[in-house]
């Protein structure tokens, strides 16, 4: 993936320097504290959800399996960027090697592609559970879930590998200062000594196709879900279905709206949107969903909430017995 760039007279820099958030250097300390708190919350929350689902055999339905994978992807996504961001904001150490920069870029973009695929799979799960409840287990078989997971992963690899190859093979013979707090694609592409338009255009078009198709299918599934919910005779059943779907829609809004805004602002905003706003939007897009996903799903999903409370009480009770 990270081959040697094609021949040019100047050497490719061995190290890039990430500046953090240009224009907000005076706020870096507070940003570091905030990011650290969000990162710890993300790690604890997602790890707790994964532990509860792994240990409780009653939580083996497809929805919980997708939620388990989503929590794992959130940990990978946050861990790929936040530790370096905190290091930049705390100490100003923004150096990152050429290969590490492109590895980070690959992980970030591949993980976001996997996450949008998982949100689509979870929307399909809710559609089957509410609109075809009698056929739920017959439709969402382990084989179908495995096929969906493989398709989501393969799609991410197919999208990201050409993009990483195109960008890593550009000549970087000028400035090595990246005006960003992580190796965001467009920010790095601007440093190339050749025209970065092909890779940038590929990124925007590819992201638009992936997100656009996923959002279209998600919207269609929830339209059918709402139609089915309105037809339920029980008011409690309607409220339960709407509550479950509402939390899912909230998570998707947190993910898609800042994500697409970040992509198009970086592509089209330029002089219209201040650089620090662009960078801050891109940072929050990668940090907020991993932080809030476990809180929303943990608090809004009754089974996970009950199992989490039982697990915590069990650990505390056992610890107190050992201490006495």
Automatic annotation (TrEMBL):
<keyword id="KW-0807">Transducer</keyword>
<dbReference type="GO" id="GO:0004930">
    <property type="term" value="F:G protein-coupled receptor activity"/>
</dbReference>
<comment type="similarity">
    <text>Belongs to the G-protein coupled receptor 1 family.</text>
</comment>
<feature type="transmembrane region" description="Helical">
    <location>
        <begin position="106"/>
        <end position="124"/>
    </location>
</feature>
<comment type="function">
    <text>Odorant receptor.</text>
</comment>
<feature type="transmembrane region" description="Helical">
    <location>
        <begin position="66"/>
        <end position="86"/>
    </location>
</feature>
<feature type="domain" description="G-protein coupled receptors family 1 profile">
    <location>
        <begin position="45"/>
        <end position="297"/>
    </location>
</feature>
<protein>
    <recommendedName>
        <fullName>Olfactory receptor</fullName>
    </recommendedName>
</protein>
<dbReference type="InterPro" id="IPR050402">
    <property type="entry name" value="OR51/52/56-like"/>
</dbReference>
<feature type="transmembrane region" description="Helical">
    <location>
        <begin position="29"/>
        <end position="54"/>
    </location>
</feature>
<dbReference type="Pfam" id="PF13853">
    <property type="entry name" value="7tm_4"/>
</dbReference>
<dbReference type="InterPro" id="IPR000276">
    <property type="entry name" value="GPCR_Rhodpsn"/>
</dbReference>
<dbReference type="GO" id="GO:0004984">
    <property type="term" value="F:olfactory receptor activity"/>
</dbReference>
<feature type="transmembrane region" description="Helical">
    <location>
        <begin position="144"/>
        <end position="167"/>
    </location>
</feature>
<keyword id="KW-0716">Sensory transduction</keyword>
<dbReference type="InterPro" id="IPR017452">
    <property type="entry name" value="GPCR_Rhodpsn_7TM"/>
</dbReference>
<comment type="function">
    <text>Putative odorant or sperm cell receptor.</text>
</comment>
<keyword id="KW-0812">Transmembrane</keyword>
<keyword id="KW-0472">Membrane</keyword>
<dbReference type="GO" id="GO:0005886">
    <property type="term" value="C:plasma membrane"/>
</dbReference>
<keyword id="KW-0675">Receptor</keyword>
<keyword id="KW-0552">Olfaction</keyword>
<feature type="transmembrane region" description="Helical">
    <location>
        <begin position="201"/>
        <end position="225"/>
    </location>
</feature>
<keyword id="KW-1003">Cell membrane</keyword>
<keyword id="KW-0297">G-protein coupled receptor</keyword>
<feature type="transmembrane region" description="Helical">
    <location>
        <begin position="279"/>
        <end position="299"/>
    </location>
</feature>
<dbReference type="InterPro" id="IPR000725">
    <property type="entry name" value="Olfact_rcpt"/>
</dbReference>
<feature type="transmembrane region" description="Helical">
    <location>
        <begin position="246"/>
        <end position="267"/>
    </location>
</feature>
<keyword id="KW-1133">Transmembrane helix</keyword>
